[in-house]
Amino acid sequence: MTNIKPKYSRVLLKLSGEALAGDKGFGIDPDVLVFLASEIREVLEMGVQVAVVIGGGNIFRGMAAASKGMDRAGADYMGMLATVMNSLALQDALEQINVVTRVQTAIEMREVAEPYIRRRAVRHLEKGRVVILGGGTGNPYFTTDTAASLRAMEIGAQVILKATKVDGVYSADPCKVKDAIKFPRLSYLDVLQKGLKVMDSTATSLCMDNDLPIIVFELARKGNIKKVILGEEIGTIVKGD
């Protein structure tokens, strides 16, 4: 058992919907859920408070549907419902391994989840429960990246942990461009000016205005969430100059 003190005591973990699909590319892979749940439990056992925001791209992508002629607001609401499905799936996986979890949604649906109330979310975290925040911001035209930034600041998280398929932020897609350069550190302005795919510009600006760091790292590597919280320099950190 490690005696190393975690660098962060309250974090917001941002997962893409695609992360839950695993290699299937669509839907929810139960093996990924089991892996994620065990990684989150490991962090909780260090005394760290964890909130989670999940995207819905593995089920429905609002912007993609809008580009095909669907009404953008309606498509975004469908995307929000997809995030709730993912949130319930992760809740089930966590509770299977005895991690007490609450799902709170920005769109009220009391039969399946609590409505999002900031003070209640913070109280759950203080009691050692995982809080999964579904439904985005509850408004169309805003991404789950923006929801993650907003909720992180509301609940007083010290950092956003953005888990992705690659081990940090690169100058180009490393899966397609062989000599893409990895950035160990970036400023918020670097991300905005270079158009890097860390989070969308609204989410990045929100973090910049409130000096909230973002750490981008590879999700699939076992123990990475714990390493980031212990302060190991993996992935890319985005913060002020």
Q: What's a quick, concise take on this entry?
A:
This protein is of the alpha/beta class and 241 residues long. It contains 9 helices and 11 strands. It has one domain: Carbamate kinase (3-Layer(aba) Sandwich).
Instruction: Give the helix proportion (percent range).
Output: 25-40%
Name of the CATH class: Alpha Beta
Q: How many separate domains?
A: 1
Which second-level CATH architecture applies? 3-Layer(aba) Sandwich
Q: Distance between the terminal alpha carbons, to the nearest Å?
A: 35 Å
What is the element string, with H for helices and E for strands? EHHEHHEEHEHEEEEHHEHE
CATH topology call: Carbamate kinase
- In terms of DSSP E residues, the strand content is 15-25%
Describe what you observe in this structure.
This protein has a single domain, classed as Carbamate kinase. By secondary structure, the chain is α/β, with parallel strands linked by helices. Helices cover 39% and strands 19% of the residues. The protein has helices at residues 17-21, 30-44, 62-67, 72-96, 118-126, 144-155, 188-194, 201-209, 224-229, and strands at residues 10-15, 49-54, 101-105, 114-115, 130-134, 159-164, 169-170, 182-183, 185-187, 214-218, 236-239.
